[in-house]
Amino acid sequence: MSIKLLEVKNLTTEFKTDKKSLTAVKNVSFYVNQGEVVGLVGESGSGKSVTSLSVLRLLPENGYISEGEVLLSQNNILNLDQKSIRNIRGSEIAMIFQDPMSSLNPVIKVGEQLMECTMLHLKHTKKEAKAHAIEMIKQVGISAPEDVFNRYPHQLSGGMSQRIMIAMALSCNPKVLIADEPTTALDVTIQAQVLDLITEMKEQSNIGVLLITHDLGVVAEMCDRVIVMYCGRIVESAEVSCLFENPLHPYTQGLIASVPKIGSGSDILPYIKGRVPDLSQMPIGCKFAPRCDGAIEKCFIEEPLLIQLDNQRQCRCHLVSERGERNA
Amino acid sequence: MRETLVELKNVRKQFLASKKFMEEKKYVKAINGVSFEIYKGETLAIVGESGCGKSTTGRAINKLIDIDEGEVWFDHENITNYSSHMMKPVRSKMQMVFQDPYGSLNPRMKIRDIVSEPLLVHTNLSKKERYQKAKELLEIVGLNEGHLRRYAHEFSGGQRQRIGIARALTVNPKLIIADEPVSALDVSIQAQVINLFKELQREFHLTYLFISHDLSVVEHISDRIGVMYLGHLVEITAKEQLYKNPLHPYTQALLSAIPIADPAKKKKRIILKGDIPNPIDLPVGCPFNTRCMHVQDKCYKIVPQLQEAASGHKVACHLI
């Protein structure tokens, strides 16, 4: 039995606006095991980034968690005060952001930014921290680590900065790594390098990774399990091979079909009609119903529940659950 | 023989990067001797990573930038040295669709004014006629009359890109230069816009230059594909050839680096070492020699020229 490192239970995150509060994430539950890569997939506005920010409690000022628990090694970190959560960030759970260029401080040398983390969490002396930082730079595959240690972020390329971000995230041996679109800003050949590095680091230190992405190609190559989000809700979750072989939710089906595939030879790309609804104007029933080809009357009235189909598989769709009942 | 609409002959462009007192001026070499043709009615895709000069190439064609060397031909005219006044009638035949649907629409103009503006510049139509045309075009790209009086911020990314396309179509252009038109959009919306591009091409007999970093998007729209690296065109051929039989080592690596949305097809990737060299100090010889795994002595000395390896399949590599 593998160990659950991170468990999120019934997480609901809301944002206060002038008129009312908007629900960005609703009743999201998932877990990340040791040595596992879990993918969180969705389009913009699906709530995947808000979920990850909620886990680290890094929400902007008008955002708040109205319900739920985030268990990190069985402790609910939502009850901790600011000081204790700060001790956890970086040491127990670390995060890599999308844009490596703007995540590094432009006026501090790369090496010093790397030292900060270990001096704070592992109580390293300056000398120890420097040795550790250089070791980490070497580990993420940068040649001439001493040279890079003394550089400023603007002197590094996008791929190099993302390597530094990974080195920084892993320098205090966290148990869980959250990677929010880690390769979206990078070119394909550099993306391949960085994805390889994340896999390698995961295997070396046996951490759990929560990979947030919109790219189904990245998911297929990296993840063990996948969670698909739409409008702040989990619509389907499954093992990666099951999801791609037999997607159940109409949204997942549409998403997989609309990815351009090399060698498909088809002339017209399949697509999902319409667009993601605005947070303030959510449909009443199933949030996907207005874009769904198979929608029945029930879909517009009643929101479906997330049904556990088997051990690893969940799906939120009236059509799927009715089909299941008929078969049973 | 197919008719040529655009032809670039050995085009070079460099930008001034730094000018310090008493120091040698430094230049970013954006395009280094690029030659290709675009045939009437086809879609040519130019693919490459950031900084490879693909956008600069697009801008060289409609003369948003002036080139340093070489020639640009459009519709049997040599437009290389045209002044902006002389370019005006030519520009109405080539329109552009930009990457960022948020930045390319004026936030203070109503959609009908944005879409009909090219008509104001290029034709003598009355206001009523212009609005009528704007209405027709919005319907063609899948929006409706009700959208005419709205402002850009009221639209989603996909809808804005449709507005950008409608604007490009107003003056009945022959060529549309689309610079990363779908890379800012979500996957499900991306597919809608690509399909729209294809429909419009059939309906209006358009020629496209489709600039993109994504080889998998390009497959659905293009007839021929050119791959650029560091300001050089390294390979150009028909779409089927490029995917089936890529010859340049860079094209091979680029194709293998694309993550495939199918876990059953886990394949061995070619992982390129290192980063793209700085375009200020280009490597001597082949531009790809710092990252190529088949590199030979010759590659460090002589820049390989684009040569025909098979019918219609040109590659710039010493090994071929």
TrEMBL record, chain A:
Keywords: ATP-binding, Cell membrane, Membrane, Nucleotide-binding, Transport. It holds the Pfam family ABC_tran. This is Peptide/nickel transport system ATP-binding protein. InterPro entries: AAA+_ATPase (IPR003593), ABC_Ni/Peptide_Import (IPR050388), ABC_transporter-like_ATP-bd (IPR003439), ABC_transporter-like_CS (IPR017871), Oligopep_ABC_C (IPR013563), P-loop_NTPase (IPR027417). Belongs to the ABC transporter superfamily. GO terms for cellular component: plasma membrane. PROSITE patterns: ABC_TRANSPORTER_1 (PS00211), ABC_TRANSPORTER_2 (PS50893). It is found in: Cell membrane. Residues 6-256 form the ABC transporter domain. SMART domains: AAA (SM00382). GO terms for molecular function: ATP binding; ATP hydrolysis activity.
TrEMBL record, chain B:
Residues 6-255 form the ABC transporter domain. Pfam families: ABC_tran (PF00005), oligo_HPY (PF08352). GO terms for molecular function: ATP binding; ATP hydrolysis activity. Keywords: ATP-binding, Nucleotide-binding, Transport. Belongs to the ABC transporter superfamily. It comes from the Bacteria. One of its GO terms (biological process) is peptide transport. Gene3D superfamilies: P-loop containing nucleotide triphosphate hydrolases. This is Oligopeptide transport system ATP-binding protein. Signal peptide: none annotated. Transmembrane segments: none annotated. PROSITE patterns: ABC_TRANSPORTER_1, ABC_TRANSPORTER_2. InterPro entries: AAA+_ATPase (IPR003593), ABC_transp_ATP-bind (IPR050319), ABC_transporter-like_ATP-bd (IPR003439), ABC_transporter-like_CS (IPR017871), Oligopep_ABC_C (IPR013563), P-loop_NTPase (IPR027417). It comes from Alkaliphilus peptidifermentans DSM 18978.
